[in-house]
Amino acid sequence: MKKAVFFDMDGTLYRTELILELSLTQTLERLDAMDISYIEYPVDRFKEIMGVPTNEVWKHLLASPNEEDIRTSNDILQENLVANINARKGNLYKEVEVVLTHIKKQGYNIYIVSNGDEAYLDAIYKKHGLEGLVDGVHSINSVTTSNKSDLVRKVIESEKVDIGYMVGDRASDFKAGKENGLEVVGCNFYFAVDEELKEADHVIDSLEELKQLIN
């Protein structure tokens, strides 16, 4: 029987709050120069919708979103995010290595399933040495529906996973876990929303608590 733990990346393994505002501010400065207008308080709005696929973000942030401006804005944001990751302006949560090592020792495969773009995830994976700890990194870009439930389902089917856990901090993670028969662990971290956490089977305040749950 193949066991697996599926992890969200942003706000679950990676402290995205350390680079989010910086990267978005850098992006907005470029958009100003290109006369692409956006809503008031875009940083606050981005934090509210954290967890939606990247191609959806700019539908919420641009004043008059159209396909070309959405694509341009997202390309610039991804470029800034990757640059800030490579400059080590963000970091993993400090318990990540210890906790993932523990989970591997319990016989679980570990997969990252994220609404982030491939280049962004790849930058985190390589810069923070996740190669020996993670069995696969899967971006929402790999499914046509931009639906995290479909992404998790695709990985379960391709990797022939029988049972496991979904670990994340936002509603899309909990929904993806529930719809795929996984036990859901909600992370009460920076981007978490109390109302959404009610959908999780377990709620943790630190990744360290996974060592008691998954053993």
Automatic annotation (TrEMBL):
Biological processes per GO annotation: DNA repair
InterPro entries per the UniProt record, alphabetical: HAD-like_hydrolase_sf, HAD-like_sf, HAD_2, HAD_sf, PGP-like_dom2
Transmembrane regions: none
Keywords: Hydrolase
Alphabetical list of Pfam families matching this protein: HAD_2 (PF13419)
GO function term, MF aspect, one: phosphoglycolate phosphatase activity
Name of this protein: HAD hydrolase-like protein
